[in-house]
Amino acid sequence: MAQDHRHASRPAAELSGRANRRREWGRVIGLLPYLWEYKGRVLLAMVFLVSAKLANVGVPLIMKDVVDSLDSATAVLVLPLALLAAYGLLRFSTTLFAELRDIVFVRVTQRSIRRVALSVFRHMHSLSLRFHLERHTGGVSRDIERGTRGISTLLSYMLFSIFPVILEFSLVAVILLKRFDWRFPAVTFAAVAVYIAFTIWVTEWRTDHRRKANELDSRANTRAIDSLLNYETVKYFNNEEFEAKRYDESLQRYEAAAVRSEASLGLLNIGQSLIIAAAVSILMFLAAEGVVSKALTLGDLVLVNALLIQLYIPLNFLGMVYREIKQSLSDMDRMFRLLEQNREIEDRPGARPLLPGPQAIRFEQVNFHYDANRQILFDVSFDIPAGHKVAVVGHSGAGKSTFARLLYRFYDVSGGRVCINDTDIRDLQQSSLRAAIGIVPQDTVLFNDTIYYNIHYGRPDATRDEVIEAARAAHIHEFIDSLPDKYEARVGERGLKLSGGEKQRVAIARAILKNPSILIFDEATSALDSETEKAIQAELERIAQGRTTLIIAHRLSTVMDADQILVLDGGRIVERGMHRALLAAAGVYAQMWALQQQEADTGTGPSLPAPVPVPA
Fold it and tell me: CA torsion 104→106→108→113, rounded to 10°?
């Protein structure tokens, strides 16, 4: 049975291999629009290419005449000098036209790389949060890097290696047919056919080894970057050697695949050299025999030798070119597959922009799950009137932060709908929706740039004075001003040079600078000490005036003044009302308040205001 299964699976594997090859070669068609944009440059480059090859083939013809003219019986002083001058000119022309070709074509290559890389970058930002939570940053960055490099290799080699070799082979074939008997072109054609067939056969075989090596290389890179991004965690648990061992395991697998790939390359080179050596030996024997029998001149012998060298050198290069083209196609395929990742969240046809002005939010019987096997929200309904403040509280894991992700439309609801001003947000353009919302997240991640850049990111067209004013409002200006580099101080990878509270105040300043009509505070003061929290809380209340505000909080002290408080438990709203009313209800909210009050009294939690008297 195992044998039958093995035979049955082989056609499927072969079909998969053929499908992969068809898909990879199909990527070439995807590059044509980028070439067509510079069709004038492409045509001029091809003219230079043909001129270089004509000059290159002309060199051995001139050399034959030079050798024959130097025969003691026929030598004339002027003739060899003219031929030698022509020989030098053709030699120079070969290099000149080749360099002019590269100068003309370099803009085509670089513009193609730029546009494809930009398309991939934009597409990556258009993909859903789900994709980015599941992706491996190191592997994706390596795929994009190799893919863009593959475009340059493919364009250069296909246009400036494959086509020139075909052209030169055609020119050499014409010369051999016109000047020599049938044996010369026959041996040449046969050798070229065997050489190409052998090269393609071995290259196809070793491409699998190279592809496997690339995958393992990306995996090793992913592990390395993941470990470095979590540098502090590695140190906390003293796991440097554990991480080094994991990384080395990936490197060992890559090493084995790379060794197999390079060993197969050696086999290919040996076979190619054997074919070329055999063909050159046969042809030189035929040419020498012709010279001895007086059927050919000494110049003919030189001509045959020079033509064969000029033909077989690029043919030898052709083996490497074919390998690189195959590798480039494989690398490009991995990059273009990123472009084929479906956008989970897209604007509907006819989606309209969100109009500026006051924004009212409504959740209508919202159900949501990240995974079909685990539902997060159950039949959630509530309103946030324009300019009002609503808070969502609950234990960790209750689903509070999901509200922000749904409102931002990082995900679409599984059931029900989310509306702004009575319009389903799925009918709005995502860009205008997100432009209207400002968020201070619980986990603030900053760009590895300056503090100024990170605050200014909230509104790139803001002036420096506006950035500083936003920093003052977030109570971080004094801290920034105390730094040696002030606003130009760099924050490090993910903001690691700043404390949690400093990062959160930068995030608050960024949200203030954006000046949105809807504000979301997702545990906005969770990383601050009690004294700073009180100062920031007063400022947040000031900037929230007149804006529609959603507060997601664990500390109940931050939501006491909310117009409505929603208590979330197990994905359901179990209580709703104002602070006093919820305390009076003596339910879940009152229990949470009492617990946090107890923690504050014992010094194990944040300090809370004095208990509010509850009417009997």
Answer: 180
Sheet strands side by side (includes 423-424): 374-384, 361-371, 415-420, 423-424
Residues 332, 27: Cα–Cα separation, whole Å:
7
List, for residues 280-333, the tens digit of each pLDDT value. 888 888 888 887 887 777 777 777 777 777 777 777 666 677 767 777 777 777
Determine what percent of the chain is predicted with pLDDT higher than 70: 81
Cα angle 240, 241, 244 (rounded to 5 degrees) comes to 90
pLDDT at res. 47: 86
In the chain, which residues have pLDDT < 70? 1-28, 30-31, 34, 68, 70-80, 125-143, 207, 209, 316-319, 323, 338-344, 494, 524-533, 535-536, 539, 599-616
Sheet holding 548-553, edge to edge: 437-440, 518-522, 548-553, 389-394, 564-569, 572-577
Give the distance from CA 291 to its chain's centroid: 61
Q: What angle do CA 541, 544, 546 make, to 5 degrees?
A: 125
Dig out the tokens for 144 from the structure. Answer: 């994009």
Phi, psi for residue 378 in degrees, rounded to 5:
-125, 110
In whole angstroms, what is the distance from residue 587 CA to residue 392 CA? 15
Q: Which CATH class for the 12-339 domain?
A: mainly alpha
> What pLDDT shows up at residue 168?
76
Q: Which residues contact 36 (CB under 8 A, 6 or more apart)?
A: none
Q: Could you state, in order of their start, the residue ranges of all structural domains in the chain?
A: 12-339
Do β-strands 518-522 and 389-394 pair in parallel, antiparallel, or remain unpaired?
unpaired
Number of residues in the chain: 616
| Neighbour tally for 396: CB within 10 Å | 7
Cα dihedral 415/418/424/428 (nearest 10): -120
Contact 615, 609 (CB under 8 A): no
DSSP readout, 469-486?
HHHHHTT-HHHHHTSTTG
Q: Taking a C-beta distance cutoff of 8 angstroms, is the pair 297, 291 a contact?
A: yes
Q: Write down the pLDDT at residue 464.
A: 92
Half-sphere CA count of 272, side-chain side, radius 13 A: 22
- Per-residue confidence (pLDDT) for residue 341, from 0 to 100: 62
The pair of structure tokens assigned to 58 is 């002309």
Tokens at 14, concatenated? 């072969």
Q: Record the pTM.
A: 0.59
Query: What is the Cα–Cα distance from 243 to 227, expressed in whole angstroms?
Result: 7
CA distance 326 to 150: 10
| SS3 assignment, position 561 | coil
Answer for the pair 320, 269: CB distance below 8 angstroms, yes or no: no
Q: At what angle do helices 298-339 and 39-69 cross, to 10 degrees?
A: 160
Distance, in Å, from the CA atom of 431 to the CA atom of 361, rounded to the nearest integer, reads 17
- Identify the bridge partners of residue 394 per DSSP, sorted by sequence position: 568
Handedness of CA 355, 360, 365, 369 (dihedral sign): positive
